[in-house]
Design a protein that fits this description.
The chain is mainly alpha-helical. Helix content is 74%, strand content 0%.
Length: 68
């Protein structure tokens, strides 16, 4: 059975939503204490966590700058 573009888009969106929940910056202290199975896994989580932290920082700066 082939993997369709619609299935890929759905799976990616679901993965994004899950990551957005897991890597919410308010969970940063908890997530930093997790032991990872490999260096690749640790690197992946660091990159994804940094992404959501940077987005939160951008939102905070935007809010402070423009009061939005």
């Amino acid at each position: 059975m082939e993997y369709t573009t619609d299935e890929a888009a759905k799976n990616m969106h679901e993965a994004y939503l899950k990551c957005k929940t897991v890597f919410d910056p308010k969970h940063l202290l908890v997530n930093n204490r997790v032991d990872f199975e490999s260096e690749d896994e640790e690197f992946f989580y660091k990159i994804v966590g940094d992404f959501f932290l940077q987005r939160k920082q951008m939102e905070t700066i935007e809010h402070e700058k423009y009061g939005k």
